[in-house]
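Schema walk-through. Below, the input block comes first and the output block second. Nothing else is stored per chain. Lengths vary across the set, and this one has 942 residues.
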Amino acid sequence: MNKSVRFVLFLAFFFCLFVFNFLLSYAAECPRYDITAELDTKNHTIAASQKVAFTNNTDIPLDALYFHIYPHRTYTKKEIGFMYRYAGYFKMNPFPEGFQGGDLKIEKVSAKGSALAYRVEGDDRTILKVELDSPLKPGDTQEVTLDFKVEIPHAYGRFGWHREITSLARWYPILSVVDKSGWHNYPFYIYHQPYFSEAAYYKVTFTLPRDEIVASTALVKGQTDNPDGTKTLVMETEFPVRDFSLGLSRSFLVHKLAYGDATIYSYYLKGDEKRAVSAADYAASLMRFYAERFGPYPYKNFSIVPSYLGYGGCQSSSFIFIDTRVYRVPGFLERYFNFLISHETGHQWFYNIIGSDEYREMFLDEGMNSYWILRYLEHVYGKNASVLTLPPALRWLIPDFTFHGSTVARYLYLAKNSLDGPVVSDLSSFQEPSSIFALTYGKGAAVLEMLEAFVGSRVFERIMKRYTEEFRFKNFALSDLVRICNEESGEDLTGFFNNWLKTKKTCDYAVKPSGEGAFVLENRGSIEMPVEARVVYRDQTQSVFQWDGRGRDIALPLDAGKAVSQVVVDPDNKIILDVDRVNNSWPRHIFLKPVPWYFFAYEIPSLMPAGSYNVVFGPDLRGSRMGAAASAAKPYDGLVKFSSLYDFNDKESEYTAGYELPHLFNKQVSVGLEVFNRNYRTRRKDVSGGKLYIRRELWPARYGIFDLNDHVTLYLLRDQKLDQQAAVNGAEDARNTVYRKTDESIVGMAASLCRYGPYADPDYGWKFTPQQEFAGHFLGGKESFWRTSLELDNYRLLVPKLSQKIATRLKVGWGGPGDKDLFDLGGADGLRGYGRETIQGARMVLGTAEYRFPLTKDMKMYFLDNVFCLNKIQGVGFFDIAKAWHNDFEGAHFKKDAGLGLRLHFDIAGFLEKAVLRLDIARPINDPKEDTHFWIGLSHAF
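--- output ---
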C-alpha cells in the first residue's frame, strides 16, 4: 500500500471517528421524539402518541417535566377582537368561518407503563406539567409517553387549514427549555413567534390519505400503502432540529433542486411553477452565502411550502412556509420575493442550527438574520440594493427605495414619535405587534451593522465564527454574544449593547457654526458613541477629528488660517441610527429633484434621501385639473408644499400652500396649516381660505391606506371642508355634513375609535365616529351655527361557514339654528335611493343595514403583471332609512330605500394592500317620483 492510499485511509478514519463522536455527543444530550400520528382530513383532527426521551443536562434533580401545548391556547374576547383588527396589517381574514383556535387535548401521560400525574398550567393554558415518579438525577434519562388529540382550526397561519392546504407547526407537545435559570415556561404570544426549544431528534410515523402530498422537516425513510386508502410515512431526522413541521395538500406540485448533498423541495400550486423555481434558486443562493460564513447546511433536505399563512413567511426546521399570495407578487417586486425566501431560509442557521430564546431575546435570530440578509442582498444586487425592479418606462416616474433604507425608516418613525422601545424585551411588552418588525428586525440589524463598524470587519468576522461554531445545535444567549464580543475586541462593549438593545435611548450628532469660522459638534441624543468629523477646507485639504461623544458638545479643532468649506459628522454613515442626519453636515445638503409628474410618493420620507433637505417640483395632473406642484421637506420632520392648478371643466384656478409638522413634541401629534386662493372665472369670484389642524393618533399604526385610524383632531376651517380621502396622516369621516365653502369660519373636533376587523371587510367589532363644529363671525365668517353628529357602525358574522355578515350604521345629528341646512342625507353616503343635496336639514337621523354575502371566493384573477388581483365578488342587499328636518320634526317624513350592490375585492401588489370597489343600485320605497340611482366608490359604504 503506497503512502497516498495510507494517507487517504488515515483521513477517512479520523473523519468517521469525528462524525461518530459528534453524533454520539448529541445523542446523549438532545431530546428524542418518537411520534405516531393519524390525520383525519375530513374532521381535521390528529390522534397521536408521543414518546419523549429527555436527559437531565442540568446540575440539579428534576421532579417534573414541562411541555408547551400551544394549540391549547385560550383566548380572551379582547384578544380575539384584536386579532381581527391586526389581521388588517396583513390584508387578510385569518378566520374564514369565524374565530377558531384549535386545541390539543392530553388524554394520558405515562412512563414505563404506569400513569403519571399531569396538569395544564399558565394563564393562557399552554404549559403542561408532568410529575415524575421520582426525581430525575443530573445526567439521567427519562422516557415519557403522551397520548393526545389535536383539533386543527379552519384558520390562516402556521397551524390551521384552509381550502386544500393544512399547515402544522408546533402541533404536538414540545419540551420547554430548562437550564441554570430553570424552566422557560413562556406564554404563547399570538402575534409573533415566542418559541424556545432544544435541538432534538425526531422520528414521526404519520398516517394520512394516500392522495395527500406531504412536505416535512425530515426525509421520508419509508412508506406503506394501507388497504383503507391511507398511507403511512416514516420520517426521521439525521441531525438535531428545533421542531417538526408538516405541510399537506393534494394539490401540491414540487420542483426539486440539488444543493450539495441536500435536495431543495420547492412545493407550489398549479400556475405558480415559475416562482417555485425561482424560490429554489434563491434558497440555494442564500445557503451558499451563509455556508461560506457560518458552516455547511447539515441536513439532506430543505422544503419551501406554500401556505395560507396570512403574512410573508414563517421559519421551521429544514422547512419554511411562504404565503400563497407571495408567489403572485408583481414582477417589479421580484427582489422582494427573493428577500422573503432568503430571510426565511436564513433562519436555518439563526433559529434552527443555533437556537435562542425567541420570547425574550428574539434579536438573536431575527435581528441577526435580518443583518445578514441585507449583506446577502447587497452581495447579489450591489451596494444599497433597491427593492423595486422597475421597467424603463417607470423608472423616471416612481421613486425607488433600498432594502437598507427601508429597514432604518421604520425605526425612525417610531423614534420620532416616542414609540421606540428596547429591542431585547419580552414579546408581550411590545405595545403594538408591528413595532416588532421595526425594532427587532430593523433596529436590531442596524445595531449589528454599527457593531461591525465599531470593532472592525476582521474582529466582527471572528465574533461570527465563534458564535456559529461554538453554539451549533445549542442555545445562544445575549450574554454569550456580549462575552464573545468583549473577548475578541479586547474592549468592554457591555454599555454599547445595553444602550442600543435594552433602552429606547436615541443618538443624534450635529454640527453648527460657533462664531466666525468656528464650529461645534453636538451630541443631542442620549447615547454616547465615538464619532468622526471630517473638515474640508477651501484649499481642498482635509482633516479628521475623532470624538468619543461624551458631554453635550465640543469645539471642533481646525487648521489655523484655513477657511472651511464643509464639515461632515459621521461621513461614512457608521452610526446609521442617528435620528437626524440632516444636521450632520454644514452647510446643510439640499437635494433638488425635478419630476415628470408630482404625486404623493415624493412626500413619503422613506422614498427620499435622509441626509438632506429635499426639494421636489414638477407638473401636477389631477383629472381635469392641470398645473404644477413643489414641496420642500426635512425627512420625517416637516413638509412645505405649494401647488397651482387650473380646472378646464369648471374654468377655475386654485393656488395652495401648506405646512405639516408630523410629530409635535416627539409624539404622534401632527400639526398642519394650508391656505388657498380659488378663482372662479365663470362666476368672477375669488375665494380665499384654509385649514389649521392638530391631530393626535390614538393607535400606534395604521393598517391600510383606506383605513380610519383611532384619532382626535381639532381644526379651524375657512371656506373649506374636512378631507375625506386618505392622506399622510389619515382621513376624516365628514360624510353627511354640509360645507358651503363660502363665508364660513368653523372650529371643530372630529374623532374615531375603532375596534373592528379585518380591514377592509370587517367581520367583527364596531366603529364610533363623533364630530362637533361651531361656525361664527370670526376670520371674516358670515355664517353662525353649531352641529353635533355621532355615528356607530357595527359588524357581525351571521353564518360563519358561509361568510355571511350583517353591518349596521346608526348616525344622529343635531344643530342650530333650526332653519339652516347643516346635514345632507342624499347620495352614496346616506340614502342611496336619492340624489345628493336632496334631503337636508338642521337635524337628522340615519340608519342602514347591509347584508353582505359572497358570490365568489378565491377567484385569483390577476391584471397588469399581478399588480391587481380580483379575489372576491361580494353581494350586498341594503336598506336605508333616514330623516332630516329643520324646526318641525313631525313635518318631515322618514325616507326609505332599498337596493343591491356588488363589492369587488382587489389585492394590490400581492398582499401589500387591499381595496374594495363599491357598486350600488338603489330605489326609493313609496316614492315613485324618484328615479333609480347608481353609485360607485371605494371601500364599503361604512
